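Batch manifest, entry 17 of 40.
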Amino acid sequence: MSVKATDESRRTFLRSAAGMAATLLAPGVTLYAMGDAAAAETAPASAKVRWGLLIDAARCKDGCSACIDACSAAFGWKDTGHPETDPQWVRKVSAKNPETGAGFSVPVMCQHCANAPCVDVCPTGASFKRADGIVLVDRHICIGCRYCMMACPYKARSFVHEPVENPKPDAPRGKGTVEGCTLCVHRIDAGGIPHCVEACQAAGGAMLFGDLGDPSSEIAKRIATYRTTRIREDLRCNTGIYYANI
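Output type: structure tokens
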């Protein structure tokens, strides 16, 4: 082999190794993705968009768990009947007016705050916010301190106490780490919508997903037209999840 050919082979190897290392070490990037093809599929998040949800309590049926079931099936978590340790990716929360008896039931998950308390308190940077507003946990550097769980006012994070069975490549889970709703970031990056929204469309249409920062998007139009609210707006977390009719 000539010296020129040897140098070219060495450069090719180094480029591949560098690409693999960046994939393995970059915050929020899964362990399973490697190489130039994977890098092309995971373009950097853009601050030009702010992804969010609008959930209409009037359309959310009592007893319906379509969104929860879809999320559980997609990411491999399940309720075991122990609320103190069960995963909190998404759950139904009910409220009732004691005087009138009127009430509602809506799904609550990570609110994907622009001013995220979980990010502020994380000592390792494992809790972080993407440029497009999606809040995630990098399990590679999560030390399981659970500061983020204590800081979250929405009880949207949970700790993995037991060994994980049948882990999903789109959201690897691991004992000793903290987890929560990812807004199905892998689907969003591929041009899709979250699993919960897709399931809800067939079950009642209570959930709408879109770009909050685009005035022409359906979600932005509805928020601008109808009365909506966000949970604990007084905390000024600037959440990406809006609710109607609550």
